[in-house]
Design brief:
Strand content: under 5%
Shape: globular
Structural class: mainly alpha
Order of helices and strands: HHHHHHHHHHHHHHHHHHHH
Largest sheet: none
Number of strands: 0
Radius of gyration: 25 Å
Distance between the termini: 94 Å
Length: 410
């Protein structure tokens, strides 16, 4: 009996070992993948180090990351803490529910979504993209949606992610950029237009691939008795409710502020080193913060007329903002102080309008769409969601630019 058990164990172990043996194609990939990575990694750093010097390159990387941490990340964290506390207060005292009721009539004609989707727009505006997924997984909320509508919530919610933080950050530039408040408000309208384009495109792509989703319910169950947010019965005093909301919202803001630090430090440092040139009076590299090899402005300069006509960018360096916003809007905001403080870069109210629109609409969708759709169980539609949102963000920036041009005429 013991021998038979031992032989079975040995047979099972051998089968597992055989299954673990990589195929010839797998062996090639095991060797090829790290070689390609190392070639690209050292190729990029050796190229930058050739122009800047190795010592200057390393000093610039460290000093740029440190300056971003101290002067940008902590500033953004202050905004996230304050906006988190404000957002929690709005939820606690029913303002969010009131906004949902006001915005509900606009949902179906503009976004082809049920009225309760307005709640998702408000919550993501006050927090971040993933807030829409928490709602989409809620049975009481998802009962109102067809499948194709529920899937499009990924695009819908992303277009308003971190909206309050972006708006506050841009409006705070009013003392340095004339017309910043007007530009930020125009950018908000641009983000709404981009959201409409992205959401409806995603619905069209989904129905084209899966026509059956048009009539299938997102959640099969009894009809909901109430809509919107269920208002709880509060036994605490108004002061205690306000205090708890402020503290809980502030804590959420701290978590969000900490979450954006890696993106700001890594992505912004990399983008800035491909955006700005040497800081020395005679064009030499000094190893200070915000130096680099200006590859992105050089590439953007080749087609500068496109960015000038579409977005009204007067400086090719500004193209770094939408590129960074693809991965993280917090990192994209980290570029703004450098733009404002550089006298060679034209960063005006029109640029604020365009950056607000693109920053809000894209909201780092390349880094969130995959996880969001995967959590909903529709991984196969990730490509369509990214394509729709790319178009939506471009439309947001174009609309914001031309709307600002129209307003500036009066």
């Amino acid at each position: 009996m013991r021998r038979s058990i031992f032989r079975s164990f040995l047979s099972f172990t051998k089968q597992k070992q055989l299954l673990a043996i990589p195929t010839p194609k797998g062996k090639v990939m095991m060797i090829l993948e790290p070689l390609i990575f190392l070639t690209l990694f050292f190729g990029i750093f050796c190229t930058i180090g050739h122009f800047m010097g190795v010592s200057e390159m390393l000093n610039t990387i460290m000093r740029t990351a440190f300056d971003l941490l101290i002067n940008t990340c902590f500033y953004l964290m202050g905004i996230t803490v304050l906006s988190g506390a404000l957002g929690k207060l709005l939820v606690e005292f029913g303002v969010v529910r009131m906004l949902e009721t006001i915005l509900r009539p606009l949902m179906r004609p503009l976004f082809r979504l049920p009225g309760v989707a307005a709640l998702g727009a408000v919550l993501t505006f006050l927090s971040d993209n993933p807030a829409i997924i928490a709602l989409a997984k809620d049975r009481e909320f998802s009962r109102y949606f067809k499948k194709y509508q529920l899937i499009s919530l990924t695009n819908f919610g992303t277009a308003f992610g971190m909206g309050l933080i972006v708006m506050v950050f841009m409006i705070a530039l009013s003392n340095k950029v004339p017309g910043a408040t007007t530009g930020a408000l125009v950018g908000l309208l641009g983000a709404v237009v981009g959201c409409i384009v992205s959401t409806r495109l995603m619905q069209r792509f989904t129905l084209r691939a899966h026509p059956e989703y048009r009539d299938e319910e997102a959640y099969e169950g009894p009809a909901p008795e109430t809509s919107g947010v269920q208002q709880e019965v509060h036994k605490e005093s108004t002061f205690i409710r306000a205090l708890n909301a402020i503290l809980d919202g502030g804590k959420t803001g701290v978590d969000l502020g900490l979450a954006i630090i890696p993106g700001v430090l890594v992505i912004s440092t990399a983008v800035m080193m491909m955006t700005f040139g040497p800081k020395g009076d005679e064009g030499q590299y000094m190893g200070v913060a915000y130096e680099g090899v200006p590859v992105l402005p050089w590439l953007a300069g080749k087609i500068s007329f496109v960015f000038d006509w579409l977005f009204g960018f007067k400086s090719p360096e500004l193209v770094a903002f939408p590129i960074t916003a693809l991965g993280a809007v917090g990192a994209a905001l980290g570029l703004i102080p450098a733009f404002v403080n550089d006298p060679s870069i034209v960063f005006d109210a029109n640029a604020i309008a365009v950056c607000t629109a693109i920053g809000m609409c894209w909201s780092g969708y390349l880094s969130t769409h995959t996880a969001m759709l995967d959590s909903l169980g529709y991984r196969k539609l990730i490509g369509k969601a990214i394509a729709a949102h790319t178009i939506g963000g471009l439309c947001a920036g174009i609309f914001a630019h031309w709307l600002y041009v129209l307003i500036a005429l009066f």
